[in-house]
Design goal:
Distance between the termini of chain A: 67 Å
Structural class of chain A: alpha/beta
CATH architecture of the domain at 170-321 in chain A: 3 Solenoid
CATH superfamily of the domain at 170-321 in chain A: Hexapeptide repeat proteins
Shape of chain A: flat
Oligomer: homotrimer
Strand content of chain A: 25-35%
């Protein structure tokens, strides 16, 4: 169960409400049965809802004491006795919806904290919550029901749409954002890109960074991640794109819709991603690349060239996954082998 | 010598006090000799204490002008004339203790800065120091003598034990912490994990993250590091675990006691570490792994499988250190060799 | 064109002023022609100035509608009709100067925001701007015309020279900085280094970190980057050194003049860099290394040994670039090759 100190509960809820949230049909006789909340399959009790994350967890399901389980039709018969089977197309999505039924995200508490600093000509939509010590610069515009956390900074002239959540210590300058955008703690949006020119005397002169950051609807930027503004023109994160924590996005990077960028990834300036590109943790992309839609880039990959749509690459330097796995296998074999004066690396022998 | 603008000194101190702090015995005739502070072996003068960090620095010891040196019994005879030998089991540990004698960590200055924002129902232990613009949420509980720096945020309901240090700009939400826990500047504890489910239309729906972060006694989290809270259940850093700067800890990661995690490491969700695991800089661990106690993971390693207790791995993908060194050696040899149409990669030929 | 909500313009400007800013000579007849601003070659219109970044963009130049272009003498004849050629030694540098003519960095607005907290004995130079909720500790000294952003923290006793820019949420403690130093959003200067000694009982005792951070003139530290202070002695970034975002600098690292350190690089304790060293993104350097002047370290490189002046290395473990490229080529070939029981890893066999 979620700790009530941190997660107030709307429960108990009747199964009818649970099924409605999940988009599942249930036997009418069960509709009034009440549940307290959600839990993992292995820990759920009779008053809790769990979900089955694929066939590999069938054993856990059979042993589960959960009162109800969200699962797909083909696995529904595996639910043990006493556990109501809630059949859905995506148990994970349904679980998200049911969890949000029990623990809805706290609605904004309308008002401006007395310690907040609001600039001249700021427009706040209906029902915004502005937290302690938040700073909103002159001429900024926020839509309805935005939550701006403690110490957050929205710079002069920025625009955010409705239902945005700017968590504590996040900052955004030179930024235009859509609806339902979330910036997590300490995210840095719109900082100066890394651009400078050397002088003949060996000094560096900053090239004025005169662009913006455009965040599409439902973009999320993780804790302490950085998205630099464009040098000229814009850095763009397409609608639904999600960045995990400690990600670096260089100036003039452009992503399409629904890209997923895992923690500690770095993308250098002017690289462009299509839609639904996924990049696993700690991968790095050099600048000015083109990454096709639905391409998948492996953890710690070092991408130095374009990637075609739908292609899976990994390794540093990156290559197609099949090749990288083979190369890794060879490398392991090399590792298991005592080096000698001979092949493959030593003094050439015979005709080699 | 430490800059007195930043490090007030308790000195001068008699050698008797130094020896007591270090747990060293000294000749009685030296007990009253006074010292001003600590310094590296190469720079210490007659009024300063240095330490010998192993046999490889014996030459530096012989040339040193230090007035006293902390060293092990077997190397004690190497101290030059005029340099008092303070024999201890661990010179490094003794040095830490002697340095803290001269420059004790500033005690909290009891009180709440007038610009701080303290929520309803907050419990502060005896002697806490709450800095300017700090924010403590409703119902939070802090033990005795905690120091909360400027702009730090402790969210509603969090619990911290005695003698915790929350440095400037750090934030902790959904967190239960033990005694003597330290969060360095900009550390982010308890943010939402990276969990979401796709809809049929290609949108992503956040899976409510309903867990907590549990920090054991004496845990330290480095500057701008991020520890996400559990999705369901908890993310746990065991007692004494230390994270360097810019580290990423995913939701539901669990570490044992005394793990050491160097800068820019990333650990994905639900991976579990035993006790005293060490992970060198920039290494990455995928999710749902089990890393045995006292395992050691090399810098930039990419760990994609379980690691047995006491095992040393490195490389990306990670393999046992001995194998990785050999593989690297082979790779260097390959690098030194002109590629040809033949082996090792091309069409296989005859005797290769 | 730069968005006027974020970038107020000094334009229009006569070409004479543009040429003066760029150090270019122009035909007298053109001096009075006016321009509105700067733009990329492909987007610039007749009222805008672009620059030619080398021969590879000659086609873009020929197709450009720009009213004027900054370029080198040898390419000047390629400017299309109606596009004034402004001949300069470095078009990139000249572009930086012209962009700054149209969009000068906003001068500090002299004054201390009423929500800022200024300690006892603070010295502020002429014309400083201290933003909302900024905190300046006792005894700190700032030169003339410094800008301290919202929520920034300058700790007790720190010293900054003239014309420094401390952006929002940045913090600096135990730090002495020169003139024209810039800390970007959330940069962390002077935190405790990662130093501790184990006790016989398996606890870790922090070794007091008693050094400072010294930042030379014109140093820049990127968003959310961390520079730990020295353990004993100092961490030093030499004049003109630039750190991108999310960089980690360990205690007692010393860099020379004009080093360029790209995003997410990590440098471990006590490593020393000469002048004009460049380190590409996500590279890692272990501690106590010596990196010679003008050495260049590739993206994601893992440097475990000294690097000679002027040497280029890459790969993990790092090797000379030429060797690393060859090794990568071999690795690609290995990847393209089906593994077998035979070579290159197993027992060599005749017919393989």
């Amino acid at each position: 169960m979620a700790d009530p100190r941190f997660y107030p509960s709307s429960g108990p809820q009747p199964l009818a409400a649970v099924a409605a949230a999940a988009g599942a049909r249930i036997e009418e006789g069960l509709a009034a049965r009440v549940f307290r909340g959600v839990a993992p399959l292995a820990e759920a009790g009779p008053g809790e809802i769990a979900f089955l994350d694929g066939r590999k967890h069938l054993d856990a399901l059979r042993a589960s004491r959960a009162g109800a389980v969200l699962l797909t039709a083909e696995l529904a018969s595996a639910a043990p006795e006493g556990c109501a089977a809630l059949v859905v197309a995506s148990p994970q999505l349904a679980f998200a919806q049911v969890a949000a039924l029990f623990h809805p995200h706290p609605a904004p508490v309308r008002g401006i904290h007395p310690t907040a600093t609001i600039g001249a000509g700021v427009t706040l939509g209906e029902g915004c919550e502005i937290g302690p010590h938040a700073v909103i610069g002159d001429g900024a515009t926020l839509g309805a029901r935005c939550q701006v956390g403690p110490h957050a900074l929205l710079g002069p002239g920025v625009v955010f749409g409705d239902d945005c959540r700017i968590h504590a210590h996040a900052s955004a300058v030179c930024c235009l954002a859509g609806h339902r955008v979330t910036l997590h703690h300490g995210a840095r949006i719109g900082g100066e890109g890394f651009g400078f020119a050397p002088t003949p005397e060996g000094r560096f002169v900053t090239i004025p960074q005169l662009g913006r950051v455009i965040l599409g609807d439902e973009v999320e930027v993780g804790a302490n991640s950085c998205v630099d503004r464009g040098a000229l023109g814009d850095t763009v994160l397409g609608p639904g794109t999600r960045l995990d924590n400690l990600v670096q996005i260089g100036h003039n990077v452009v992503t399409g819709r629904g890209c997923v960028i895992v923690a500690q990834v770095g993308i250098s300036g002017s690289t462009r991603l299509g839609d639904y590109v996924t990049i696993a943790g700690q991968a790095g992309l050099t600048g000015h690349l083109s990454i096709g839609s639905k391409a998948r880039i492996g953890a710690q990959a070092g991408v130095q060239g374009d990637v075609a749509p739908g292609q899976d690459v990994t390794g540093s330097p990156a290559m197609p996954v099949k090749d990288a796995l083979r190369a890794a296998l060879h490398l392991r074999k090399l590792g298991a082998r005592k080096p000698s004066a001979g092949s493959p690396g030593g003094k050439p022998r015979g005709e080699d």
